Known about the structure:
Blueprint: H1 10-31, E1 49-51, E2 57-58, E3 67-73, H2 78-94, E4 99-105, H3 110-119, E5 125-128, H4 133-138, E6 145-149, E7 155-160, H5 166-179
Parallel strand pairs: 3-4, 4-5
Antiparallel strand pairs: 1-2, 1-5, 3-6, 6-7
Amino acid sequence: xxxxxxxxxxxxxxxxxxxxxxxxxxxxxxxxxxxxxxxxxxxxxxxxxxxxxxxxxxxxxxxxxxxxxxxxxxxxxxxxxxxxxxxxxxxxxxxxxxxxxxxxxxxxxxxxxxxxxxxxxxxxxxxxxxxxxxxxxxxxxxxxxxxxxxxxxxxxxxxxxxxxxxxxxxxxxxxxxxxxxx
Length: 182
């Protein structure tokens, strides 16, 4: 009928210390900006991804002074099949006006992404992020996720998923940013 007092052992002390440290670390992590997805108004997070031939590394910062449409995609993503022809159209129409499309595959296996690209050939810059370095920096809320980034490197809009009805709004946002002074 009496509650048994906890016996202080080295194992219990270690367990209590581990729980306290984990709670503190989790609290600090949850309060840090890295714990939240990138949103409109944030600077575009820094990350680097390699082109499929490993010939070069690309970064959003490489395109400062241009409007960047950064798209995270995967071969298994049905809406991504719809977005690639649209991104080709945007790059073809607006590339000379200062638009740079960057599409980053998050496929774990490069061959899966390459099969997708053979079926939906891009006319824009494509990179591979098998380790999810860039995807983690942006904390993607869904697939695909696209970020409209202005000439100064600030995220101006985020699009989760891709639907045919999104095309008009995305194009409007990009045109508006292309018209802005840096």
